[in-house]
Amino acid sequence: MIINSPRRTAGPATAAPVARRTPPGVRVRDLTVVYKTPLGELPALGRVNLTIEPGTITGIVGESGSGKSTLALSLLNAVQPPGRIAGGSVEIDGLGDVLRLGGDDLRRARGRHLGYVFQAAQNSLNPLKTVGKQLLDLGRSHGVEDLRALVRDAKALLERMGLDGARVLDSHQHELSGGMRQRVGIMLALVLNAQLVILDEPTTALDMITQATILRIVREVHKERGLTTLMVTHDIGCAAEVTDNLAVMYGGRVVEHGPTMEVLGRPRHPYTQGLIRAIPRLSGDIAEARALPGRPPTLGTLPKKGCVFAERCPLRMDVCVEAEPRPVTRDRRTVACHAVERPASTVEEEEWA
User: Fold this and answer.
1) At what angle do helices 131-141 and 103-112 cross, to 10 degrees?
2) Separation CA 19–CA 186 (nearest Å)
3) How far is the C-alpha of 100 from the C-alpha of 27, rounded, in Å?
4) Nearest-CA neighbor of 199 among 221, 168, 171, 172?
5) Would you report the helix, strand and coil content of the chain in percent, each value rounded to 5?
């Protein structure tokens, strides 16, 4: 059986060397995603603009329902009914506009160029098949000729993550812990040598030690393989630990984007400031941690005009309920807020004109 092929004996297993390629950049422009509801088609993403620099780890943070996972799935052109991508483009270096791909071209792009680690790892694994059989199915679907080499690489990746590769490949998903399943998901996303890897809530429902292990793996594999990585998370602490850049989403919009330490150290958008104030501290006055007032909008309660954050914003002005703020870039920081001072002309304003 291929799964139990002999291990190499020359020292501890390590990931097979990967030809280092130029990591891709990603440019999301005017991306709009809608969902069909009894009230009609409602926008989950509204004209999202985001640039992910090659070779960086970019974090997407925000409350539940802000559109983080919808944005991540859009990068794979994988939004499922009743949702649909209604407009915009997702340009990825080496692939072009992913939203124009379909059929075999799109299938080949997923796995070979784009790797995705799902939020609920147990839901992305077939409970009736061992991990090894699912690995072989993945290899066959992508035309991998040397399946034994694929299995060796998978074992090496799993052992690189501190697991017994042979045991994991011979296991069903219910025989693995949550942290082990999460590492299996990372292995499946990397084993075909994807260049852009998307991690959707990789540390959700894991204990602190396992979280730290997963974040270490993300950092090390990203560096060793020369990847461009996108990490979706609700945990600002995790984002601060591993990301180079941070995008803050609210109501299906990117309201702030820039270098992680600058965004967290000097937040400009009132929503970003509110998120940081809500983080509990280990020391000092516990009353300093204040929850954001109100509730985040749903598809049915998103305002048809104005700023999506206006209802909860302490800096709300009359213009905020009448006109949607344009994202403005200044000093490597992009902010969409009427209350934030902005120059008369910017590149982002030109894109929105």
Assistant:
1) 130
2) 19
3) 14
4) 221
5) 35, 20, 40
Whether 224 has a pLDDT exceeding 50, the answer reads yes
Q: How far apart are CA 197 and CA 118, in angstroms?
A: 11
Give me 74's structure tokens.
Answer: 């859009």
- Whether the Cβ atoms of residue 118 and residue 189 lie closer than 8 Å to each other: no
Note if the pTM is more than 0.90: no
Q: For residues 306 and 325, what is the distance between their CA atoms, to the nearest angstrom?
A: 7
Q: Which of 36, 118, 108 is nearest to 73 (CA)?
A: 118
Rounded Cα gap, residues 92 and 168, in angstroms:
33
CB-CB contact of 325 with 337 (8 Å): yes
DSSP states of 231-242: EE-S-HHHHHHH
The residue length of the chain stands at 353
Q: Which tens digit of pLDDT belongs to each residue from 38-86?
A: 989 999 999 999 999 999 999 999 998 899 999 999 999 999 999 999 9
Report the side by side order of strands in the sheet with 83-92.
40-52, 26-37, 83-92, 96-97
- Give the span between the Cα atoms of 121 and 272, in whole angstroms: 29
Q: How far is CA 72 from the centre of its chain?
A: 5
d(CA 112, CA 87): 25
Q: How does DSSP assign 36-103, residue by residue? A: EETTEEEEEEEEEEEEE-TT-EEEEE-STTSSHHHHHHHTTT-PPTTEEEEEEEEEETTTEEGGG--H
Q: With CA atoms as reference, report the closest residue to 154 among 117, 188, 195.
A: 188
What is the distance between the terminal CA atoms of the chain, rounded to a whole angstrom?
61
**Interatomic CA distance for residues 257 and 335, integer angstroms:** 7
- pLDDT tens string 261-315: 999 999 999 999 999 988 877 666 666 667 788 888 999 899 989 999 999 999 9
